[in-house]
């Protein structure tokens, strides 16, 4: 049985914590930005009310929907919520599919990679997942770099899987990590998870 109520995590730069309604303005900043949402599957937020509803019905109800806590990504030095990272789908009881988004003003700083490196060992050693999956549009080079840096193993390419916002059909590249993979044993140990537990 998976543990879904995830603990607050903290690194030198980030705090991963549950969403709050007070995050609405920060979330609207990136959820209304077409540059940020270019490769995401949810609709652009046209009003702060849409964002509040999204926080209330999606991000704050994860456990009720049998999903792990959806993490808000907070930058410690700014006390600003800049994005989200979560398991949005659970398959076969112990396989989690990860998604993330981040405010474009914080792109290129390694923050999503850092958040992934905090989340992965938590999902394996606290929640009890055996396998984690992640994917990206082949055109999304930024996301590709993040996933590679986090050590995910490329497993396949789905050709012309989805019509993107600009009208073309994009290929999607799929990756996985399993609890008994060598890279997990080396980089994502129980000790690695415990070092991020907020003191």
Summarize it.
The chain is an alpha+beta fold. The chain is built from 7 helices and 8 strands; from the N terminus they run ββαααβββαβαββαα. The protein has an 8-stranded mixed beta sheet with strand order 1-2-3-4-5-6-8-7, sandwiched between helices.
* Gyration radius over CA: 16 Å
Q: Which spans have pLDDT < 50 for at least 5 consecutive residues?
A: none
The side-by-side strand order for the widest beta sheet comes to 1-2-3-4-5-6-8-7
Q: Mean pLDDT score, rounded?
A: 96
Would you mind describing this structure in some detail?
By secondary structure, the protein is of the alpha+beta class. 31% of the residues lie in helices and 30% in strands. It is built from seven helices and eight strands; from the N terminus they run ββαααβββαβαββαα. The chain has helices at residues 24-31, 34-37, 48-59, 111-127, 141-149, 182-187, 190-194; strands spanning 9-10, 14-18, 71-75, 80-91, 95-102, 131-137, 153-163, 169-178. The chain has an eight-stranded mixed beta sheet, sandwiched between helices. A hairpin with a 5-residue loop joins strand 7 and strand 8. Helix 1 packs across helix 3 (48-59). It is globular, with a radius of gyration of 16 Å. The two termini are 26 Å apart. The model has no long low-confidence stretch (mean pLDDT 96).
């Amino acid at each position: 049985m998976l543990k879904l109520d995830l603990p607050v995590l903290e690194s030198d730069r980030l705090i991963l914590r549950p969403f709050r309604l007070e995050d609405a303005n920060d979330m609207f900043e990136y959820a209304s930005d077409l540059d940020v949402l270019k490769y995401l599957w949810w609709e652009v937020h046209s009003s702060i009310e849409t964002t509040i509803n999204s926080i209330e019905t999606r991000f704050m109800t994860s456990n009720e929907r049998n999903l792990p806590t959806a993490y808000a990504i907070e930058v410690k030095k700014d006390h600003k919520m800049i994005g989200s990272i979560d398991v949005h789908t659970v398959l076969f009881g112990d396989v989690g599919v990860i998604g993330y988004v981040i405010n474009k003003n914080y792109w290129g700083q390694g923050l999503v990679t850092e958040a992934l490196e905090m989340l992965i060992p938590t999902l394996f050693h606290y929640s009890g997942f055996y396998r984690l999956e992640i994917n990206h549009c082949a055109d999304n080079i930024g996301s590709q770099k993040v996933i590679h840096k986090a050590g995910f193993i490329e497993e396949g390419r789905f050709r012309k899987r989805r019509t993107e916002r600009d009208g073309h059909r994009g290929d999607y590249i799929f990756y996985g990590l399993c609890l008994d993979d060598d890279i997990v044993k080396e980089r994502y140990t129980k000790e690695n998870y415990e070092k991020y537990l907020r003191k």
